[in-house]
Amino acid sequence: MDGSNHFYIHNARIVNEGKIFAGDILIQNGKIARIMGRNSLTEDVVMDPRTEYVDATGCILLPGGIDEHVHFRDPGLTHKGDFVSESRAAVAGGICTVMDMPNTVPQTTTNALWEEKQASAEGRMFTNYAFYLGATNGNFEGIRNADPNRVAGIKLFLGSSTGNMLLSDDTVLERLFKWQGLPFAAHCEDEGIIRNNLAAAKEQYGENVPFRMHPQIRSAEACLLSTKKAVDAANKYNAPLHILHVSTAQELELLTDTHPEITMEVCPSYLFFCDEDYDRLGCRMKCNPAIKGRRDREALLNALQQGRIRCAGSDHAPHTWEEKDKPYLQSPSGMPMVAHTLPLLLELVWENRLKLAQVPELLSHNPAKLFRISNKGFIREGYDADLVIVEEVEPETVTRDNLPYRCGWSPLEGKSLHYRIRSTFVNGKRVYHKGKFAKKAEGQPLHFER
User: What is the pLDDT confidence band of residue 49, given thresholds at 50, 70 and 90?
Assistant: First the structure.
């Protein structure tokens, strides 16, 4: 499976830029050389003798997924996952490009540490990749010197975080939005509200706080207050702001046509779970922000259907089961999800709650446009051949035996899915095919047109 970047994909159901059509794709030298209608191969198409024929009859062909929100735990937390293990999981889920967050050890809050992380990823990522810089109360001058063509964006932790990554100085936030040198991606929860709610829960339950209290501790009020603060500051300077993992119906009301540069992401966990599941899943579904109520879930899904939410990211954040399987106060927040984002979006299509043409909009086109990623996110001639072939199957159940994550568990265990990733191509090379991976990790760093 290694080596070749010349393929002829025949008779696929191509889904791209709002259109669905039967056709063929010719990949040459890692690029999309030709897009053709079905059986339209003509004499003017020059075939390299190394070209491999791929029969995609009955399959869906999508542009490779771009996950703009992952935590691959590298460096410093690699017992949970690393660039190799988690990028393998990503391509198993049809994700060809990832943008990794800065809350590692050490935290990626300087350009020097960013460069070290970038260098460490070379030859270890099956996906293409880029890394965020984390904003703190004291690193504005360093952020101003970041390379806009290489750095994914600036991560703003406006809620609970670790170490010095909680951005609590409003004057720094305003300086950043006034500067606007890079895209901003924000985690929005109000720290004061969360601390008060946690103290009240401890007073009521002692050390045995039940997991169902999570959405009361990390409440809708905490999310709304923080998101409104960020949106108001961004609007003041017409700054682009991407709100990550939106979890409440109220936050959606902050989206307006007046300020289209304010965008939002939703994660599959907020679309498939609600607060009624805490007693069943416990630590498995503990994440930040907390998964809220049924009304919030339906509001998020409606916003997704209407195109008001622009991106679907995974917030992939693995922990070992030994770390995770603890009482509420000791169990860390976060769950593995990068391999299941695309299958879950397709599950919404199966359930007639999302249109098939919307899937590449959410997972490929919009992330590429929002972050201005060069030559990615679309099936276009001349673009990098980042493609995924998906097949419809009899319902397959998620089990620990078929999980690709190093951490070895998932909140989705027991759920049946109707779509399976057959093949994933990154830069024209087939890196995943029917459960097998390429031997070499040859993903490339992203370039941004800013």
Answer: confident
Query: Amino acid letter at 337?
Result: M
389 vs 420: CA distance, rounded Å = 9
Residues 74 and 218 in one domain: yes
39 pLDDT higher than 70: no
SS3 431: strand
Same domain, 251 and 321: yes
CA 197 to chain centre: 29
Residues 70, 56, single domain; the answer is no
CATH of residue 72:
3.20.20.140
**72, HSE (Cβ side, Cα atoms, 13 Å):** 31
Tokens of 448: 């941004």
Q: Is residue 11 exposed (0-12), middle (13-18) or buried (19+ Cβ within 10 Å)?
A: middle
Query: Do residue 145 and residue 239 come from a single domain?
Result: yes
Residues 75 and 184 in one domain: yes
Tens of pLDDT, residues 334-360: 999 999 999 999 999 999 999 999 999
Helices (H) and strands (E) in the chain, counts: 15, 18
Domain region containing 325: 65-371
Which of 94, 25, 32 has its CA nearest to residue 314?
94
Number of domains present in the structure of the chain: 2
CATH number of the domain residue 14 falls in:
2.30.40.10
Q: Is the pLDDT of residue 40 over 70?
A: no
* pTM of full prediction above 0.85: yes
Considering the domain architecture, whether residues 69 and 57 belong to the same structural domain is answered as no
Q: What residue type is 250 in one-letter code?
A: Q
Q: Is residue 408 in a domain? A: no
Distance CA 158, CA 243 (A): 11
Measured in degrees and rounded to the nearest 5, phi and psi for residue 287 equal: -150, 165
d(CA 230, CA 256): 14
Q: Which amino acid is at 142?
A: G
- Same domain, yes or no: 52 and 194: no
Average pLDDT over residues 112-121: 98
Q: Same domain for 198 and 120?
A: yes
Q: How many residues are present in the chain? A: 450
Give the per-residue pLDDT at 243: 98
β-strands 262-266, 311-312: how paired?
Answer: parallel
Give how far the C-alpha of residue 308 lies from the chain's centroid of Cα atoms, to the nearest Å.
Answer: 17
